[in-house]
Amino acid sequence: MLQTLAGVNLAGHSVQGGMALPPPHGHEGADGDGRKQDIGDILHQIMTITDQSLDEAQAKLVSSN
C-alpha cells in the first residue's frame, strides 16, 4: 500500500483527502475525539476501496462467463 499526503493509493484505487496521523500522545483529552474521527475516516476509506474492488471483481467474473 502506498500512502501520500494527498491521498491513499491501493491497487490502482485512489482516495483523495488522505491525512497524516498526528503523533501519539501520552494522554487522552479533547484530542482523543479528533483521533477517533481520523480513524473513522480511514476505516471509511478502506471500506470504500474494498467495495470498489469487490464490484470490479464481480464485473470481471460476469464478463468472463
Task: Give your account of this protein's structure.
By secondary structure, the chain is an alpha+beta fold. 54% of the residues lie in helices and 15% in strands. It has 1 helix and 3 strands. It has one helix at residues 30-64, and strands at 2-3, 7-10, 13-16. The chain has a 3-stranded antiparallel sheet, with helices on one face. 0% of the residues are buried.
Topology:
Blueprint: E1 2-3, E2 7-10, E3 13-16, H1 30-64
Short description:
The chain is rod-shaped and about 55 Å long. It is 54% helix and 15% strand. The protein has 65 residues and is of the alpha+beta class.
Q: How would you spell out the order of helices and strands?
A: EEEH
| Overall pLDDT score | 75
Task: Describe the main β-sheet briefly.
Answer: 3 strands, antiparallel
Low-confidence stretches: 1-6
Radius of gyration: 16 Å
The number of helical runs is 1
Separation, N- and C-terminal Cα atoms: 31 Å
Class computed from helices, strands and strand pairing: alpha+beta
Per the principal axes of the C-alpha atoms, what is the gross shape? Answer: rod-shaped
Name the assembly state.
single chain
Number of extended strands = 3
What fraction of residues sit in β-strands?
Answer: 15-25%
Q: If strands are numbered along the chain, what order do they take across the biggest sheet?
A: 1-2-3
- Determine the fraction of residues in helical runs and give it as a percent range: 40-55%
GO molecular function: DNA-binding transcription factor activity
Subcellular location: Nucleus
Biased composition (Basic and acidic residues): 25-37
GO cellular component, one term: nucleus
